[in-house]
Design a protein that fits this description.
Helices cover about 45% and strands about 20% of the residues. With about 300 residues, the protein is of the alpha/beta class. The strands form two sheets. An eight-stranded mixed sheet has the order 5-2-1-6-7-8-11-12. A four-stranded mixed sheet has the order 4-3-10-9, with helices on both faces.
Length: about 300
Amino acid sequence: MVIAIIGAGAMGCLYGAYLSRENDVIMLDSYEPQVNSINQNGITLIEADNSEQAYKNVKAYKSGTCKESVDLVIVFVKSTYTEEALEENKDLFGKNTFVMTLQNGAGNDRKIKKYVDEQNIIIGTSKHNAVNLGEGKIKHGGSGITTIGSNYNADTVVDLVASCLRKSEIEVEVSDDIQRIIWSKLFVNLSINTFTALIQTPIGYMIQNESAWNFAKRLVYEAVEVAEADGTYFDRREALEMVRDVCTKAGAGYSSMYQDRNKKIKMEIDAINGAIVEQAKLYGVPTPYNSLIVDLIHAVEGAYDLYD
């Protein structure tokens, strides 16, 4: 396959490197130094055991400038930039082009539907953890399953993309209830991402401190009520165990929102906790804790210019 990945950050480069083993991979990003580094030196992955491997069978373009025909587009930009990235790269979306989002948050597929036939859209989640070190170098701190599916009865398309991922040694699970998977990932992100961004700690700290874990419970319990109102049912203990499991497995890693705060860039709060708050309004479910967190994160963003 010819695969274009929109977003050459940590996760985009991780998947781009692995997929380049069996496919022609094109990386697209708005940050020109990253584009230049990938073209010069490829993508270097530093694995959890500190082993390094350079993947040089990739090429990169500045976002919006690629005119090549592609079979699959994977969207890996921050959710806050999805609309802009899709519009900028709309020439990539041919009649038979598949588009997959593995982004954080909810509602990204609805944005993609404006540009692509819904039968060609795949949505999913990734349990990999990666950090962008710059200049095409990525620290791959933790591995996990990539789960994909479709809201649009596109089973043939999903199976084809799953096969492509597996050939590149990416562990894949196909789900016939992808919305449940999306909600599960939201529970993890709305607690771990926001907490580590606010407190500036590694992921594992959340289960090491009683107050931190109470923070997680309040956010997750609200989200479970919203999910149930929307038609997807979870046991509270089951939802919390998902969060605990990620904290255990990726304990020394750092969340994407933590990294965004350190770089003083806009965080994905509106597509994560904000998505819960907006969905809750449709059903009249109160979400005071998630609403507070949205305001706190935006307050942190507003203070970026106050510090060097």
